[in-house]
């Protein structure tokens, strides 16, 4: 694996990091997988320069046929290496194998083709026809153009999904990109960089992949005036820092941030099915998904029964080796993340909560970063466990007093990323869904995740949308051209 994963991609060349290398770990075993290239500020400087040069001087921005061909080449190259990538992803991310057949790998790779198709069919120019503003005969057109150089900064939880959900539309639109992945998952990005260099015709400088152990390179990318758009996914705190940095040069920002999404069970729902589904959701990938529903809102009269069903489901799910087909809940990414989750669990107890199941590390695992699927009871929506993003397999269960109260509690959050509603009367469930102030909502288990569905947040969950036509258009500028006519 070392040849393909310990290089940066800068200006079309696979080069070592000027800072040497840093280790990447398997979170399930704490085994050192190997070395990743450790870029310095000088490497980032060169990568941004290369992306600027490629945008300003190559034909990439205007050659739609080349872009479409290259995107399909990249998809095909990733698919050719999918077995190797799958094992790498399971090892480096701790991602359960079953997820790699969906959002952790196969789905975002296939979605590159969707962006290629979209670019081919997109209406790049709209004729607004003739008009006489202020009496001057004019023929007007509106054209769409790439924004320019995109600085893409990504987290570790779904590395391929997030790297490709930025790269796909950014390249389809004609931009050039500097990708700075999270220090926890450098190999996933480095592998992508190697395939771009070795198995596609993407011109030099169009994509640069800069792995580093140093978060400061993200800030450097966000603050460089040669960057035209910062596309960031990560925590709300870092997103705020990115926006502040980018504000100095008034660089456009696109932010996908944290969440604390509510799963509402209405009083006519099948309680057992709904609570089991909520348990399944929060345990998936050890809860390390920004849109995972982490507050379970149940009718007050059914609270005790809901606690029993949900705790039983979470206990049955347990934790498992991510290599195993049947595992739902693998490890969390790092010792630091485990500490972060544990400190939230302590706060839950301090705030008067208790654990109906879980509450710490599983007794039978002495290596790896594990947290048992946990259900917290006895808290209100004002508690820190109900307000703050924990990013672990931790669910807070809260009682509600009917549909209006459930909507009030769900919306009483600084976040607005996603939500779920379960109820037998579909019109009633739809009415509740319509009142949620979130970017996506699932009704009765509907799955919104797909290439053509825009994803993003209200409030402190972000600015802008990823994927879908709306996600593509984040990477475009609008230019109006008016020609004087006789
Ligand atoms: P993070 O915010 O710590 O880091 C994200 C990226 O930002 C990393 O590449 C990091 O190196 C970089 N970074 C750190 N400091 C920076 C700075 N000052 N300026 C610029 N870049 C900087 O997030 P994480 O811990 O890697 O990921 C978990 C978080 O990501 C969670 O909060 C989760 O909700 C969020 N997330 C959101 C979405 C979404 O689409 N809304 C998707 C996945 C994850």
UniProtKB/TrEMBL annotation:
EC top class named in words: oxidoreductase
PROSITE patterns linked to this entry: ALDEHYDE_DEHYDR_GLU
InterPro entries linked: Ald_DH/histidinol_DH (IPR016161), Ald_DH_C (IPR016163), Ald_DH_CS_GLU (IPR029510), Ald_DH_N (IPR016162), Aldehyde_dehydrogenase_Rv0768 (IPR026460), Aldehyde_DH_dom (IPR015590)
Domain Aldehyde dehydrogenase: 17-481
Alphabetical UniProt keywords: Oxidoreductase
Entry's EC annotation: 1.2.1.-
Cytoplasm as UniProt keyword: no
Residues at the active site: 256
GO MF annotations in UniProt: oxidoreductase activity, acting on the aldehyde or oxo group of donors, NAD or NADP as acceptor
Similarity comment: Belongs to the aldehyde dehydrogenase family.
PANTHER family, per database record: ALDEHYDE DEHYDROGENASE (PTHR42804), ALDEHYDE DEHYDROGENASE-RELATED (PTHR42804:SF1)
Stated name of the protein: Aldehyde dehydrogenase
Species of provenance: Actinomadura rudentiformis
């Amino acid at each position: 694996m070392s040849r393909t994963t310990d290089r940066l991609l800068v200006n079309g060349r696979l080069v070592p990091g000027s800072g040497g290398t840093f280790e990447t770990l398997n979170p399930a075993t704490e085994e050192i997988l190997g070395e990743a290239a450790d870029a310095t500020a000088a490497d980032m400087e060169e990568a941004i320069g290369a992306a600027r040069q490629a945008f300003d001087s190559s034909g990439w921005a205007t050659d739609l046929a080349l872009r479409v061909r290259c995107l399909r080449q990249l998809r095909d190259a990733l698919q050719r290496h999918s077995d190797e990538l799958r094992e790498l992803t399971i090892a480096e991310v701790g991602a359960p194998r079953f997820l790699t057949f969906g959002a952790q790998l196969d789905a975002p790779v296939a979605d590159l083709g969707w962006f290629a198709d979209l670019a081919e069919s997109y209406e790049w120019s709209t004729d607004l026809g003739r008009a006489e503003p202020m009496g001057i005969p004019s023929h007007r057109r509106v054209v769409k153009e790439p924004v320019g150089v995109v600085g893409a900064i990504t987290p570790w939880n779904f590395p391929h999904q997030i790297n490709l959900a930025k790269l796909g539309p950014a390249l389809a639109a004609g931009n050039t990109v500097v990708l700075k992945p999270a220090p926890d998952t450098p190999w996933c990005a480095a592998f992508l960089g190697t395939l771009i260099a070795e198995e596609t015709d993407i011109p030099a400088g169009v994509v640069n992949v800069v792995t580093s152990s140093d978060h400061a390179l993200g800030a450097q990318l966000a603050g460089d005036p040669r960057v035209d758009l910062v596309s960031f996914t990560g925590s709300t705190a870092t997103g705020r820092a990115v926006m502040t940095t980018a504000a100095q040069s008034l660089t456009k920002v696109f932010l996908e941030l944290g969440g604390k999404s509510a799963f509402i069970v209405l009083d006519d729902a099948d309680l057992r099915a709904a609570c089991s589904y909520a348990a399944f959701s929060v345990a998936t990938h050890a809860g390390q998904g920004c849109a995972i529903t982490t507050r379970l809102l149940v009718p007050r009269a059914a609270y005790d029964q809901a606690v029993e069903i949900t705790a039983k489901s979470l206990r049955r799910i347990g934790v498992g080796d991510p290599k195993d087909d049947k595992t739902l809940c693998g490890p969390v990414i790092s010792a630091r993340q485990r500490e972060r989750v544990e400190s939230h669990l302590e706060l839950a107890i301090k705030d008067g909560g208790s654990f109906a199941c879980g509450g710490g590390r599983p007794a039978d695992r002495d290596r790896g970063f594990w947290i048992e699927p946990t259900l917290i009871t006895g808290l209100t929506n004002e508690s820190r466990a109900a307000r703050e993003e924990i990013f672990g397999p931790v669910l807070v269960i809260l009682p509600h007093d009917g549909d209006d109260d459930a909507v009030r509690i769900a919306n009483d959050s600084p976040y607005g990323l996603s939500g779920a509603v379960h109820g037998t009367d579909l019109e009633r469930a739809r009415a509740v869904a319509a009142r949620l102030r979130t970017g996506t909502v699932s009704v009765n288990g509907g799955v919104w995740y797909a290439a053509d569905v825009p994803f993003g947040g209200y409030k402190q969950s972000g600015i802008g949308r990823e994927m879908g036509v709306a996600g593509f258009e984040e990477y475009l500028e609008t230019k109006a051209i008016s020609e004087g006519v006789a």
